[in-house]
Amino acid sequence: MPDLLLELFSEEIPARMQAKAADDLRRMVTDKLVAEGLVYEGAKAFATPRRLALTVHGVPVRQPDLKDERKGPKVGAPDAAVQGFLKAAGLKSLDEAKVQRDPKKGDFYVALIEKPGRPAIDVIAEILPVIVRTFPWPKQMRWGERSAKPGALTWVRPLHSIVATFGMETEEPDVVAFDVAGITAGQVTRGHRFMAPDEFSVRRFEDYEAKLQAAKVVLDPQRRKDIILADAKDLAFAQGYELVEDQVLLDEVAGLVEWPVVLMGAFDEEFLSIPGEVIRATIRNNQKCFVVNDPKTGKLANKFILVANIEASDGGKAIVAGNERVIRARLSDAKFFYETDLKTKLEDRLPKFEKIVFHEKLGTQAERIARIERLAAKIAPLVGADVAKAQRAALLCKTDLLTEVVGEFPELQGLMGKYYAQAAGEDASVAAACEEHYKPQGPNDRVPSDPVSIAVALADKIDTLVGFWAIDEKPTGSKDPFALRRAALGVIRLIVENQLSLGLFGIFELAAHPILRQQADEHYKDIVKALIESGKITGRDTALEEYKNSSEYVEGWTDHAYHGVVRIQSELRVFFIDRLKVQLRENGARHDLVDAVLSLHAVSAAMVDMLGGKEFSPFDETDMDDLLMIVRRVEALGKFLDTDDGKNLLAGTKRASNILVIEEKKDKRSFDGAPDDSLYKLDEEKALAVAIDQVKREASAAVAKEDFAAAMAAMAKLRPAVDAFFDKVKVNDDDPTIRENRLKLLNEIRAATRTVADFSRIQD
Asked: Are strands 290-294 and 299-308 parallel, antiparallel or unpaired?
């Protein structure tokens, strides 16, 4: 079957747009082909700085013939309905239709429509102009004399030519005949802008790719990346260095060149006095160059690697010299910024935060830092951190945001805080926390292990979460402008990977109070204003403080705080549980085991919806806010169910649960309550009752000690008694009193296993 070759040759395609543009071209063309009945065998798209290309293999020569039946109106229907049917079906008269009998609804007219398939090349010629005109570039432009006319073509940069051929591999292909804004499709393209600018003719993809290679154009982006990476490593190794790999930069550079040529340059050694990350950011951001390490020292060398787009006649000397000149100037600026920053102490920058708003409803950065400092001091003892160091780190951790280097390179925030803290002689843990309190920022980011870093990182993330929940700025659907899901996953990883048993509810409450107090003060300002105007209180500057001593304020604030804390705790817990499910499943935990454990920790609807009914305590459910305990339960349950005891107990428990569900539905009642020992008639009943009592005691004691392996071992003791019960005992006894008692005993099995998990949610 024939192949399609398409090339859209333009002035320039920005590197950041190339990958998506290639994917869009493949998707748009193949979707249209399939919609027209032209099912292909394979397709692949490519992008360079000057062209988008697509090859589609195995396209049928022509469309399949279409046969369709179109049902019309009833025989004897009004003339308007008949005429509408004839027009829609493309018939001249009812003589061209047939009558179909329906025993229930009567006779109907039916049109038999036969539409012969067209040659594929004609269909493609209609498809491609539409795709070119509707291509989804994020930014487009018009150009030339035609740009002022209605319907002028827009493209990312001026479109110069179109190649479109279609034909069998063994034959000369045909040009797909179409025109877009005066650009006629043909089979002529050109190579490298400087080294091979002449036009040449191409036939099909293999011919096209080979001729581009000869014309100094590497079409495949992945091949360009491979060339750059291999040549850069080889050049660095030959000079005694190691390339610092950078996948994001590699992707970008491969989109800037059609014929990659790797060269090495150098900069003055004096610049090595500034942090290596600053050097790398300067060279990377401004010149798109790679840096190299000296393997002897493990630090950056005063060399860099650039990728040119031409084989220069002088071997690249002028290109290297030009890059060295620019990099020297940029590094001079960076060195000046760094040395200027060192002249100001970190704490001396703090007053500026009083004028910087963090969020209009959450106050200034200074207020946020004060909240983080207060919260970090409370968390520190819980994670084994020194309180004073945690407070100091929390106080200083955001100060590098006001430095010159971070202003120039925002991606270095935190890291520069560490360097400046070290230079100022701060404690090592304090300096480390200045960097690590942002971590982890993603699933592959490192989790801090230093207690001070953990305390500040938790305080920072929890303050963010509680704050935005307090002002009702929660994530909705795919929208999460404040990265709250990432913050929650960060809290989870900090807790789980550091094996921290923390009660999050208490921490949420500590974080919420300053924010809720601020909300209350804003609310009561209007009340105070009215009291001043009425003359009931005096002294405008001290009025609010005076009013805070009144019973009206105290009662109002207490009520507001209670309602706010309960809502934040309950809603955040649901949010955290959802994030924990995602984390556990990504780590390989079975979804049904996660649900089985988490079902024991479900928040009641009353708690989620309640705005503060004081009769309900948010702390009623044991361990409901201890994420580590939930994770340990899931792990222990998984190991238990891998054993024969676990599998058999699961089967017995499910059997008991199924019987209960059926009988409860039949009787329209539940079988709660303790069974009556005096009604046991068989030894197996008595043995099961004894086993359940023993398992409840042992499993509950093990859970209290957070020894979930021991809890599962206790559960295993229930298995023989359950098996024997179902072998020998008839649950639905003829005596209704005995039947009810045995159903209550089955309910005890369900209750006993729920000490560790809801077995009914576990799949066989």
From this structure: antiparallel
The strands making up 66-74's β-sheet, listed across from edge to edge, are 66-74, 106-115, 98-102
Residue 93: left if φ>0, alpha if ψ -120 to 50, beta else—which one?
beta
Q: Tell which phi-psi region holds residue 668, choosing left (phi > 0), alpha (psi between -120 and 50) or beta.
A: left
Q: Are 573 and 602 in contact (CB under 8 A)?
A: no
Dihedral sign computed on CA atoms, order 222, 223, 229, 230: positive
Closest residue by Cα to residue 109 from 143, 83, 137:
83
- Label residue 78 exposed, middle or buried (CB < 10 Å: 0-12, 13-18, 19+): exposed
Torsion of CA 458, 464, 470, 474, to 10 degrees: -110
Q: Which of 299, 162, 309 is nearest to 228 (CA)?
A: 309
Tokens of 688: 């099961």
Tell me, letter by letter, the H, E, C secondary structure of 524-552. HHHHHHHHHHHCCCCCCCCHHHHHCCCHH
Catalogue all structural domains in the chain, each as residue range(s) with its CATH number.
3-61+119-214 (3.30.70), 66-115 (no CATH), 221-342 (no CATH), 353-590 (no CATH), 643-761 (1.10.730)
CA distance 578 to 570: 13
Which residue carries 């091949």 as its tokens?
Answer: 223
Pairing of strands 106-115, 42-47: unpaired
Side chain identity, residue 246: D
Asked if pLDDT for residue 140 goes beyond 90, the answer is yes
Within 10 angstroms of residue 721's Cβ, the number of other Cβ atoms is 22
d(CA 568, CA 508): 8
Q: Roughly how many angstroms between the first and final C-alpha of the chain, as a whole number?
A: 49
Q: CA-based diameter of the chain, in Å?
A: 104
Query: Cα dihedral sign for 606, 607, 608, 610?
Result: positive
User: Does the predicted model carry a pTM greater than 0.90?
Assistant: no
Q: Give the residue among 104, 413, 437 at the shortest CA–CA distance from 277.
A: 413
Tally the C-alpha atoms within 13 A of residue 404's C-alpha that lie toward its C-beta.
Answer: 12
- Render pLDDT for 151-164 as a digit per residue (tens, 0 to 9): 899 999 999 999 99
Q: CA angle, corner 67, sides to 61 and 72, nearest 5?
A: 150
Q: Alpha helices of 446-503 — where are they, by DSSP H?
A: 451-470, 484-497
Is residue 418 a contact partner of residue 393, using CB atoms and an 8 Å limit?
no
Q: Name the residue type at position 334.
A: A
Q: What integer is the mean pLDDT of 83-105?
A: 83
Decide the pairing of beta strands 188-190 and 98-102.
unpaired
Do residues 369 and 350 make contact, with C-beta atoms less than 8 angstroms apart? yes
The pLDDT tens digits for 70-85 are 888 888 888 888 888 8
Q: Is the pLDDT assigned to residue 320 strictly greater than 80?
A: yes
Contacts of 457 (CB under 8 A, 6+ apart): 433, 436, 437, 438, 439, 448, 490, 494
Under a CB-based contact definition with an 8 Å cutoff, are residues 447 and 497 in contact? yes
Confidence of residue 618 (pLDDT cuts 50, 70, 90): very low
Q: Which of 207-216, 476-485, 541-550, 704-713 has the lowest mean pLDDT?
A: 541-550
How far apart (Å, rounded) are the C-alpha atoms in residues 411 and 409? 5
Place of tokens 């200034």: 364
